[in-house]
Specification:
Jelly Rolls; disordered N terminus; alpha+beta; 26% helix
């Protein structure tokens, strides 16, 4: 059994009601239904000097800069990352091609209630009182089966682009992981990660034009379960991260850059030294159709994660008990709002 299948099996143990999977038919909506109306947000940061760090991977100080960004922000943007701009543009184009399909066609690839892949609302939907102005498409391992449902005779291009993107994202994720670990004076040899392959997923996100973007939410505030997440957000802004003491700050797109953010597993490993950054997606005010592509890089599903003793300062106690990746995914599937509380010592 592959790691991908095992990760999918974890989600299979936490089925979601069909009403929390099926998106709106956005093409037929002329006003925001009450089911999707959120309170108007006024908690943006007014400090326009605050800017999430941009790190050049070719910078000799990249290790130190990445460590500082993880500690102070929980996120950064990365340039000179080795992913060609034309591949980023190709994956965005394929995502747009998918989400532009008629609703009845997209429904042929609908995620099953106990499934982990396919078309549908974000898995976090059941935890919020209102629905989000969002549709997604989740891929673990091969995209072929769902792509055939969408394009019975014309799926080769989509599959080729997605598979090339997944391979290059995995290489970059491993490079960034080593970079971040090096900033902590930690190396893979210090960790017991040889119990399988990384658990990964690719998430295509669509935020269709909204008749009243101030009253709807693209993606509600959440942290990622992953070790780290790499996001391509194209040229249309919408991503915001929460910084303590400042509020919500927009992560403005930088041409060709990728957003990297700390996930829950890295937060646990560092004994909360690196914050698992709270983030959300707000809707574009100009009525543009925004898409983004998130690559979630996790540890092997049977891997045990706990605060590294090597990182603990003199007299500092570990904040969290050891937990396997599978157990933590289970916990977050049940206790979405405070999953870390349940493993706190």
């Amino acid at each position: 059994m592959t790691t991908t299948t095992t990760l999918a099996q974890v989600y299979r143990e936490h089925p979601i009601h069909l009403r929390d999977i099926i998106p709106l038919d956005f093409n037929s909506i002329r006003s925001v239904p009450d089911s999707h109306v959120w309170p108007i947000s006024d908690d943006f940061s007014s400090d326009h000097q605050l800017m999430v760090p941009i790190i050049d991977l070719k910078d000799p100080n990249a290790v130190k800069l990445a460590g500082h960004a993880c500690k102070t922000w929980g996120a950064f943007q990365v340039i000179n990352h080795g992913i060609r701009l034309n591949l980023l543009e190709e994956v965005e184009s394929e995502a747009r091609r998918l989400f532009s399909l008629p609703t009845q066609t997209k429904m042929k690839a609908l995620r099953e209630p106990a499934g982990a892949t396919g078309y549908g609302l974000a898995r976090i939907s059941p935890f919020f009182p209102k629905y989000m102005w969002h549709e997604g498409f989740t891929i673990m391992d091969s995209p072929t089966d769902h792509a055939r449902a969408l394009w019975p005779t014309d799926n080769a291009r989509f599959c080729d682009v997605i598979e090339r993107y997944q391979k290059q994202m995995k290489v970059l994720a491993e490079k960034l992981t080593d970079l971040i670990l090096e900033s902590l004076a930690i190396f893979r040899e210090d960790l017991n990660w040889d119990v399988g392959s990384p658990s990964t997923a690719l998430q295509l996100n669509s935020y269709p034009p909204c008749p009243n973007p101030n009253r709807a939410m693209g993606l509600a505030p959440h942290t990622d379960t992953s070790f780290l997440t790499i996001l391509y957000q194209g040229s249309i802004s919408g991503l915001q991260i929460f910084k303590q003491g400042a509020g919500w700050i927009s992560m403005l797109p930088v041409n060709g850059a990728l957003v990297v953010n700390v996930g829950d597993l890295l937060h646990i490993l560092t004994n909360a030294r690196f914050p698992s950054v709270l983030h959300r997606a707000v809707l574009n005010q100009e009525g543009s159709h925004r898409v983004s592509v998130a690559y979630f890089y996790g540890l092997p599903i049977e891997c045990s994660v706990s605060p590294l003793l090597k990182l603990l300062d003199s007299g500092e106690n570990p904040r969290y008990r050891p937990v396997t990746v599978k157990e933590y995914v289970d916990i977050k599937s049940k206790y979405f709002e405070e999953p870390l509380t349940s493993i706190r010592i």
